[in-house]
Design brief:
Length: about 80
């Protein structure tokens, strides 16, 4: 876990922390090369959010700095939306 994830998990009630992690795992960060990884696995947080933002970051697969799209993975359906 990243620093911010550890901090939030330590301060939030367990139910919120689980909801936060489930939601963050349902959002996928996708590079133009095709590489995709969940927001949570990239050390980020996405919770109680909608839309399709973009993040400028380095891709661990192709190594390029580029705009990554952040999209909700329809195959992952957290039971608790928070
Ligand atoms: Zn890439």
């Amino acid at each position: 876990m990243s620093f911010i994830q550890k901090v939030l998990k330590s301060v939030l009630p367990q139910r919120w922390a689980e909801s936060m992690e489930a939601n963050s795992r349902a959002w996928m960060v996708r590079c133009s090369c095709g590489f995709a990884q969940s927001v949570w696995d990239r050390g980020g947080i996405r919770w109680k959010a909608a839309g399709q933002p973009r993040r400028y970051m380095q891709c661990p697969q192709c190594g390029q700095w580029s705009w990554h799209t952040v999209t909700r993975d329809p195959s992952v359906a957290p039971s608790d939306q928070g």
